[in-house]
Amino acid sequence: MSPNGSPARPRLAEHVLARRHLVGEEELIVLHDTRTGQLLQLGGREWGLLAAADGTRDVEGIVLAAAREGAHARVHAAADFFAALHAAGLLAAEGDVAAPLGAGAGGAEAAGAAEMARAAEADDRARRERPIEVLPDFSLHCDGRGSCCRLYASVIFDPEEATRARALRPDVLSGGARHQRAFTPERGAWPCAASAVALRDGRCAYLEGEGRCSLHAIGGPGAKPLGCRTFPTSFLDDGVSVRVSVAVECACVLASVGRPAGTPLLDPRLRVRGDLDERVHVAELPERVPVAPGATAARAELVAWSRRLAAAAPPADLAAGLWSLAAAVEAGGLAGGTLARYERPGPLDPAALAPWLAALHARAARRAREDAAWRSERDLARRAAQWIAMATAALGDPEVLAAVLSAPAQWGERERFYLRAVLHGHRLFGELPLSLALRDRAVRLVVARALPAIFATVGASDPACAEPIALVEAMMRAYGLDAYAGEVVEER
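Above: the chain sequence. Below: its structure as tokens.
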């Protein structure tokens, strides 16, 4: 430890994301603490110091290394800077490294280890042979006007992908010769396995003005990073099959509903999990899943229940159906009779919705305030946070909420597809108990229904506004707005 209590050889903690943003002509590094949501802006000199802090250098060594890269600072000023980061919880703890492997075991322990290894090998073989089940009756029509390349805070490249991108477009941020000009570490500081590309007014630096990927234009689709090539496809292994679905987070997804002859979500030649690129992230459904506060169910039960719900007749008001189903699950678990509450729901209760809308408003308004301090007015993420904050504020008026709930369904087909994609991908099963996740999805639909009036009020004409459900979904996941649901739970 240094005299001020900070680590003697500091480095950025793994739970901190450093992202390079160009806001107009100004360049910023924004540190995002994924544990607290805290944001901290850095200038070029401060980032030069932090980039040189790889956990092997003391402060004097960091100052010398940073100076070689053009970031000059005095040792005492650098020490104060790292002390402030340490106080904010942004540095890794002293000695925070992976524990070394112990010595090999012998006798019965070795036999047990061998048995475990054989079981793990069999389990891995079963996983690789799991059949792939793709969302039926959907193909993607991407017109390049959606939000995926200009909304997400992290567009990740592996080392090979970043090298290829810099070779194809060496002019982008002068990154051809210097990786650090166009990228920051995916997590923590250098070195790292992957990097996040810099964003210009919230857009990927490699995105052209008209919304087309310049890497794709020059090098073909294979020149894009894997995450971009697979988006918006999602993969989840439920123990029976690998469910391939679509994240409803881009206007192109909903604009593709009912349109044949688009691009398939997955090459039809890929039949089992082992056929997938090893770099594709396949989430796995745990053996037991929370279904209501204090209650869990086995994975197989959830999978069967999800299939029954997907086959059920959707109600005229999908949000009301989901809210009623949540109450049925809390009262009767996953029994087949609970679906009757979904198919024939009562009207949504504005008083029951109010605390959920208030919690979402508080989180969206906070996000909008933080973004207004540094994001460009052209940044879609900044504007989307403002729109959601405005919509949830409007819905706080009982008369406005009642009018939205009683209005004829404008997005019925879109909402039904949204639920079909969510169910196929098992996206209702996560940290939130199922009953609360159902209420959360109902709230998202209500907010999406309120957004067109906000767009009309502010004169919003962004192509992303054409599909409010997708805009809400993207902001929920990409910018942590979905944490509002946990805050409602804490207050219950």
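Confidence is low (pLDDT under 50) at residues 98-106.
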